[in-house]
């Protein structure tokens, strides 16, 4: 495998050695923009000069709040080239709660105090008002890019790409908390890309097909910086285009002979479910469909292979990776020689005793886990389990574990245990491979047994009548009750009360049959009513509050007639 370089150095090497090779194909509003490596480096230098011309302090933060467009990639790298610290933030969409979005970002802006924000349209005025002069420049991307490029000198690469220089901030937020700026340094990114590329067979011949937003770590690192550094080609479309026509993704694989993609578990289910059964597809060029960012599910992987095996899906192409923004991207991946392995375990031992006892596939009262592979060479992992238990928090340390959250010492201190990063994920190790159960904060303890919200949501999302990917589970403990109870909210397009009542009973039965859990309440809502975080994930915290308001009679009037309480 060829040497893995730092991001900016790699850009210049590719532009020198392969100037005409395609780095990006980006679809926006039905039109493709194609950028060669030479185009990218020219754009990087133009953007760097524009930003230097503003007089921004070296090492200060620049926020990009942009929709999907090719300029986002180049401007981000240009900020890096100028010695600044770029960070993508999600842009507001009609599907989000506007008040929540701006309130969350008001808190973030007050903490970080960026030297510049680059956005578009009406956002520019809103952001300028929020920062009240504390941010030196709030700029419209198109207007700023239309200005002449200043004739200013660029710093030497070694001045801005030192091992310990901050390369970027990745603002990571889950479903339960405010955003924290993960500090990632140039050498950490290089080391991570080297390890992941070796595990995933990522080289200059790779073609990445992606719809993932680049304000997420998987979109930013896995589907932008990693293939770019390795000299591959990136074919990128807007997430909303993918949602509108999922099989467009499959068409792009065939058209561009895609080799790699990263997808969350739900997307595998969505592609298999929404494909056009009258058509034939060709995925024979794909080296790896990598399942990441959510705990992988055996049924999802099995169904995807059943559906796309006839389309040329290679043996070993169904891969799983595990990681988080705090490790740049990943800490493990399954071997490319075979599909991810699956282990079946005794369900009562798992939920009640937190022990892993292997059983044969199909055994009664069993559940399954999909391996996330072996830990990468430059990282260590341990399971912080209680005595007599096999399941505990996954903790990691090593070359690309982040050094802290930006201007947030309290969160940084809380995140580490004697040098080990506390991932917040529950899991176990078996035969040298890591298995992820779910997030600690998302675990429900019901009458002494442990359940994971992602498991429940995955089960319910696969039930006909439920809008795929639109289910949320959480626990609520009533005053005086001896235990938490499991609550499930799901969206449906059904409107007939009888059909909704039948759907609720189906959900209750399927969940009990699969994991032996009786759901205390099930709320069926019309599509569009579950609340999302600013990064587009369903928010358990906000939806828990929604549920409590429904139960207490405080929900908006528009919800009450359509919500069908259990």
Automatic annotation (TrEMBL):
It comes from the Bacteria. GO terms for biological process: fatty acid biosynthetic process. Pfam families: AMP-binding. GO terms for cellular component: plasma membrane. Keywords: Ligase. One of its GO terms (molecular function) is adenylyltransferase activity. The keyword Amino-acid biosynthesis does not apply. Residues 14-406 form the AMP-dependent synthetase/ligase domain. Belongs to the ATP-dependent AMP-binding enzyme family. This is AMP-binding protein.
